[in-house]
Amino acid sequence: MQVYLPIAEISVNAFLLLGVGGGVGLLSGMFGVGGGFLITPLLFFIGVPPPVAVATGVNQVVASSISGVLAHLQRKTVDLRMGTVLLAGGLVGSAIGIWLFNVMSTLGQIDLLVQLSYVVFLGAIGLMMLQEGVRALRRARNPTAPKRKLHTHNWVHNLPMKMKFRSSGLYISVFPPLLVGMAVGVLAAIMGVGGGFIMVPAMIYLLGMPTKVVVGTSLFQIMFVAAFTTMMHAVTNNSVDVMLALFLIVGGVIGAQVGARMGLKLRPEMLRILLALLVLAVCGKIAFDLLWQPSELYSISIPGRF
Amino acid sequence: MRFLVVLALCLLAALPARAEEILAGLSQKQLSLTVNFEGSEILVFGAVRREAPLPEEGELHVIVTIEGPPTPAVIWRKARRLGIWVNVESMRIRAAPSFYAVASTGPLEQILSLDSDLRHRISTRLAIFEAREDATVANPAAFSDALVRIRQNENLYQQLESSVTLERDTLFSTTISLPKNLVEGSYATRVFLVRDGAVIDRFDTEIDVQKAVLERWLYNMAYEQPFLYGLLALGLALFFGWGASAAFRVLRT
């Protein structure tokens, strides 16, 4: 069955879309990640124009984070103060990202910018996760190996304009969280991702937040930044495809529920290594497309359309 | 009275005699791009009407063209920079049809004179209008060729030589398949009657391609009320994202 996407103006197989949504949902449920960084490149591969893929991907992030945010708010595992600071940075970052996106669009280099961002970030994150996963696997086999210290004092704690974050038990400058939020906002706008894969490590290792509130707080920030970015893309580029989003969301929420149950049966270290390999595979495919001589050197773009 | 008859005869003689006329019909004049649109086949058929007996000499041919709404376009050329393939050079096209099919009773270069082709802009390359002021590109022909090649690969440009059947120099028919990735708008359909390379008659009609109701509505809203559209997108995301997990929670308990 074919589906005509009114904004992308292409016709794609409905089951393929549900499969992409469901598959990524399954993975996000298993690994506890948002999945935006997988959905957007998969949409490129099936022929959705990158601006539509990014804008619709970020819309899907809103759907995949709402239930998590509500659950964490109920359990009071959201540092609202920290979340708001991160969000303020995120909104500024998103606006910068949208501006950059539109400048690159008019220069005809938006596809390149999006692809390069994916190669760099997926590559870096994939390698880091792989390293973490392998280390964790070794530690599980050999429990006497030294553990890494979690909370350390670093340069972050010596900056001005300190603020108390009671839920996190922190007294730090507002600049690091603002900058972290901003970086995530830029990525949301350019890559169509939530940015959890950047924010969670930054919150733990850079800001020194306790793991208990990290996931809820990052989801809180991600949902609002993604909602803001969706609006920005809709208003400035008209590139959000509701029909496409609907298929991805429906596939995604079902997949996430199934995945969450499957994830409980697998060993966490193995999960992390599997996810790392998956991320690296997607990164490799995009890098390959950039590095290999394409079979068609020319491409057509139509002003005002994707 | 006699004077009037003579006058009428003179007038008739003065008019260019249209010995042969072409009449055509289409199997479909309206297409709706519904959610499950998978392309469509258009049958173009018709007949040659003659007042005089069939001329002894000269070959008779029929050419059918369907042209989708033309749009400006930018063609980019990639080259390797710092090891990666990036867009480096571009050429603007003033107007190129979003769809173009030429079906004929024989190879165009054999059945149609260059003069008639130029006048009626029948062959694919003549349907594309390059922007003349773009003199920065070294080899503009390569860019236009690429446009034709890319769209041919997507079945958006079709050269269907010898696909029109013409029976006893009178009845003709052909089918042209429109692909699934159509742009909406009015598709100009022309039928040319060609004798000895010259166009002696043409018939013009159009096919109306429209997005279906829901798609039309979403598209218009996205462009005319983007803020409202953005809110709709968010609303749907929140509703389905929250709704689905709530439904699963109910199912589990």
Task: Walk me through the structure.
The complex is a heterodimer of chains A (306) and B (253). Chain A is mainly alpha-helical and 306 residues long. Chain A has one domain. Helices cover 71% and strands 7% of the residues of chain A. Chain A contains ten helices and five strands; from the N terminus they run ββαααααββαααααβ. Chain A has a two-stranded antiparallel ribbon with strand order 1-2. In chain A, a hairpin with a 4-residue loop joins strand 1 and strand 2. In chain A, helix 2 packs antiparallel against helix 3 and helix 3 runs antiparallel to helix 8. The longest helix of chain A has 32 residues. Chain A is globular. The two termini of chain A are 24 Å apart. With 253 residues, chain B is α+β, with helices and mostly antiparallel strands. In chain B, the strands form three sheets. Chain B has a six-stranded mixed beta sheet. A four-stranded antiparallel beta sheet of chain B has the order 1-3-11-10, with no helix packed on it. A three-stranded antiparallel beta sheet of chain B has the order 5-6-8. In chain B, strand 12 and strand 13 form a beta hairpin. Chain B is globular, with a radius of gyration of 25 Å. About 2% of the residues of chain B have low confidence. The chains are: A mainly alpha (306), B alpha+beta (253). Strand 5 of chain A pairs antiparallel with strand 5 of chain B.
